[in-house]
């Protein structure tokens, strides 16, 4: 079994979701949203860093995945999102984890079956794959979808197989 954290980067709300993966089986562990605090960009990034560090300390994942940023017409907005994404990649790296990166369309196609699904469809399919879970919000649902995508595309299963071989 391997524990995977998926992270949906955002400057205001950074979603996270933790799952356990054993072969083709996945199980929900926890999910939530880190809300940035502070008046300036530096304080907000520091706030996200501290909160995400506490999440990784509490749940101790063995693998991590983050959604890639797509560039849109708002260059300043894309740059700020990229800075939050830097925090989302830095914290797992501080815990010694390699971070998988997935395009939004790949995550949606993996979880929903189509690459242009909306947030409601993503949340619905996450709940279908892990019945009975309470999702903290759309950003947490997206983070769980990122973790599921990582589990299905070799990031988690390859690591789990390596751990088994090393233990033998």
From TrEMBL:
User: Catalytic activity, per the record?
Assistant: Endonucleolytic cleavage at a junction such as a reciprocal single-stranded crossover between two homologous DNA duplexes (Holliday junction)
Q: Which Gene3D superfamilies match?
A: Ribonuclease H-like superfamily/Ribonuclease H
Q: What is its EC number?
A: 3.1.21.10
Q: Where does Mg(2+) 2 bind?
A: 67
Query: What does the record note about the cofactor?
Result: Binds 2 Mg(2+) ion per subunit.
Question: What are the names of the required cofactors?
Answer: Mg(2+)
Keyword Oxidoreductase among UniProt keywords: no
Primary localization: cytoplasm
| Family listed | Belongs to the RuvC family.
Put simply, this protein is called: Crossover junction endodeoxyribonuclease RuvC
What is the native source organism of this protein? Sulfitobacter faviae
């Amino acid at each position: 079994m391997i524990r995977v954290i998926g992270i949906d980067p955002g400057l205001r709300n950074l979603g996270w979701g933790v799952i356990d993966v054993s072969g083709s089986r996945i199980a929900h562990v926890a999910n939530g949203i880190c809300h940035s605090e502070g008046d300036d960009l530096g304080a907000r990034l520091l706030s996200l860093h501290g909160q995400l560090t506490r999440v990784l300390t509490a749940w101790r994942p063995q693998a991590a995945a983050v959604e890639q940023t797509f560039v849109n017409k708002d260059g300043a907005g894309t740059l700020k999102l990229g800075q939050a994404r830097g925090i989302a990649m830095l914290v797992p790296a501080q815990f010694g984890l390699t971070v998988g990166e997935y395009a939004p369309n790949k995550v949606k196609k993996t979880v929903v079956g189509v690459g242009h699904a909306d947030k409601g469809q993503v949340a619905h399919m996450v709940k279908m794959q892990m019945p009975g879970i309470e999702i903290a919000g759309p950003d947490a649902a997206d983070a769980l979808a990122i973790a599921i995508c990582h589990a299905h595309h070799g990031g988690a299963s390859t690591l789990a197989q390596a751990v088994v071989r090393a233990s033998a």
